[in-house]
């Protein structure tokens, strides 16, 4: 019995003398495994010390990629083709030209010809833009967009200071219609392209 007791005591001493592996080494062994798992999933962990300049550069790169995709999706105009938005803008410019022409005639008939300089300038600009948009010219669409932007801005101011419901509805219609036409003309301008197509005059 004494020998068995001494053997047990010697075994207990040997177990107590064995070195215990630290927990830090275990965590260090687990970290590479988790990193490998992230790389296999296809979603790398974000850089811990990424600067603002790096984030901005990555955002610009994504924006350029989207722009390239949008340009690649555009279909060039066929000879003699005119986008629908440009046709609508042509009709709007033509109606505005006729309205200004009628106002000019009425001013002259009332003896207010001296006050009609701005109306004459407006008639000339609208006639030139209408002719250019009928032929799907870039500069005409650009001029129409500038006119639409000014009209939407003035209508927005009139909507804020509207004194009657009728005025507010009219101003709101200009804001909605002009804004929608402006938006569709952006894509039309991209299709028309600049400079002019080969063979265009």
Structural class: mainly alpha
Radius of gyration from the CA trace? 37 Å
Q: How many separate helices?
A: 7
Order of helices and strands: HHHHHHH
From the N-terminal CA to the C-terminal CA, the straight-line distance is: 118 Å
Contiguous runs where pLDDT drops below 50 for at least 5 residues = 20-30, 32-39, 195-201
Q: Shape from CA axes? A: elongated
Mean pLDDT: 75
Q: How would a crystallographer describe the biggest sheet?
A: none
Oligomeric form of this entry?
single chain
Q: How much strand content do the residues show? A: under 5%
Name the helicity range: over 70%
Number of strands: 0
Describe this structure in words.
The protein has 201 residues and is an all-alpha fold. It has a domain at 84-192. Helix content is 76%, strand content 0%. It has 7 helices and no strands. Helix 4 (84-109) runs antiparallel to helix 5. It is elongated, with a radius of gyration of 37 Å. The model is unreliable at 20-30, 32-39 and 195-201 (pLDDT under 50).
């Amino acid at each position: 019995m004494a020998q068995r007791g001494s053997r047990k005591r010697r075994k207990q001493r040997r177990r107590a003398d064995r070195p215990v592996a630290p927990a830090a080494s275990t965590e260090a062994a687990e970290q590479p495994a988790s990193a490998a798992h992230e790389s296999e999933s296809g979603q790398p962990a974000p850089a811990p010390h990424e600067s603002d300049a790096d984030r901005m550069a990555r955002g610009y790169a994504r924006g350029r990629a989207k722009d390239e995709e949008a340009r690649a999706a555009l279909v060039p105009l066929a000879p003699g083709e005119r986008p629908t938005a440009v046709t609508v803008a042509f009709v709007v410019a033509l109606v505005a030209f006729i309205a200004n022409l009628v106002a000019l005639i009425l001013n002259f008939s009332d003896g207010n010809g001296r006050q009609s300089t701005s109306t004459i300038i407006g008639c000339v600009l609208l006639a030139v833009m209408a002719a250019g948009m009928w032929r799907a010219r870039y500069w005409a669409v650009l001029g129409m967009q500038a006119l639409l932007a000014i009209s939407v801005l003035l209508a927005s101011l009139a909507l804020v200071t509207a004194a009657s419901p009728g005025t507010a509805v009219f101003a709101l219609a200009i804001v909605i219609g002009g804004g929608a036409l402006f938006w569709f003309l952006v894509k039309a301008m991209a299709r028309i392209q600049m400079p002019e197509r080969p063979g265009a005059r």
